[in-house]
Amino acid sequence: MKNLKTNDLVKLSFFVAIIVLLAVTPFLGYIPLGFTRATIIHIPVIIGSIILGPFYGAFLGFVFGLTSLINNTFNPTVTSFVFTPFYSLGTYSGNFWSLVICFVPRILVGVVPHYLYRGMKKIKNNDVLALSVAGVGGSLTNTLLVMNFIYLFFGQSYAEVKNVALSTLYGVILSVIAINGIPEAIVAGILTTAICKALLRYSKAPILQ
Known about the structure:
Elements: H1 2-24, E1 30-32, E2 37-39, H2 42-52, H3 54-74, E3 88-89, E4 92-93, H4 96-109, H5 112-123, H6 127-161, H7 169-202
Antiparallel strand pairs: 1-2, 3-4
């Protein structure tokens, strides 16, 4: 049992190192798109959730959120105030809800894939299908929650920064989900399946317990 716990902590450290490396490497973890950023940092969080379980997965999601907070504070875009309370743009500034947006979806990225994988394996014992669903679902958890939280907590400010009417803002939100979120989810599904199939062969973690 002690050896298993040590093994899990070593794996956890490995995933944390990957997240930090992606976050600090320019144009890799956070890909600038002018008004916002795309990301692939959720992928090691998803994989960690499947391999290590939801508790460690949630911790990896917290690390993901922390890198987002730091990145948006010290390397901001015009909409960074929705992710950090320590940045303002003119009259627009972050607040407590910025922390909710920054951390809650990312923590859930470390939880949801584990249960999607586990649930799909019970429905159909097919690793490729289960891993694909977990990867896509984990990625969409991040995108859907972040974008809907932005609409809920910062709708007026976000609309003004984006120079759109509040009445059309949700259409803009949906376009971001379609343009950024769906490709991110497809990539996450493919990479999660490929990487996890290799890791699961050598993992001794009792994932389905």
